[in-house]
Amino acid sequence: MSETVLVTGGAGYIGSHTAMALITAGHKVVVVDNFVNAKPDALSVVAELTGVEIPIIDGDARDVELLTSVIEDHGVTAVIHMAALKAVGESVEMPLEYYGNNLETAIATLQAMRDAGIYKFVFSSSATVYGDPESCPIPEDASIGATNPYGMTKEMIEVIIRDLAASDDRWKVTALRYFNPVGAHESGKISEAPLGKPNNLMPMIMEVATGKREKVMVFGDDWPTADGTGVRDYIHIMDLVEGHVAALEHLDVQEGYEVYNLGQGEGVSVLELIRGVEEATGMQIPYEVTGRRAGDIAECVADPSKANSVLGWKTTRDIAQACRDAWNSQ
To answer: Which residues are catalytic?
Structure first.
């Protein structure tokens, strides 16, 4: 069934790629974004690539009245909620801003949905909810306990939507725990382009490759991993957003609340990712090892088998392709 999907925070890196995947799968997209960490350009490119105009509302996802009117005016039938502040390090420095923004946008979005009488909700959660995992790969039923305010906001919102689903069986809600999205659409026209200083590793490496930055800072080489640098599960952005389409479409047969990991199921270290970009670009990427960063952990790798079996979704693009596509987008 074709849905009309409101994507909050839809102009960002993941949001714009999600809009692309939704339209390609035959759904309609409406975006609300306040452009704090994004520009409308990416959505113009999505419209150009798909031939479909996307209604874009410049507004704050904390505004219940605005969201309710958008849902009613555009005939929205489901929401993918992505509006959030999202930098782990910054959240440690600015906890009040993170708790305020991330919880308020989620609660306002859910209130607007209830006021408008729609109940299909997909939430952008994060692997940070697992905190420092007891073992890897991590299944969805592993114990959770975020180690930073950003992760805590995701954990709290998961609790809110779980309780909401338990309170009223009209709600069909899914939390998608992202691991580390990297890469870009194969056209090279949509990419990860944060405003200001990037907080994620791939855009930092890209800034070095394009000469905007002298070197990559590697936060610690004394972690208990094979090469001493942090290990993460890097998932190609197009695999990730295809997971959103699968989760959205599965809501038709879902009852209540479900949670899924979206990850590759394999770990890649910081130095391995740097080497992957060196291979894709044919250039050397200088780096400097510095101290560990507050809130960081040694290793975080997904067990994606639940999403594979229940949603019929699996990753089809490897880390080498993610590095090539990230470079192509530059």
So the answer is: 150
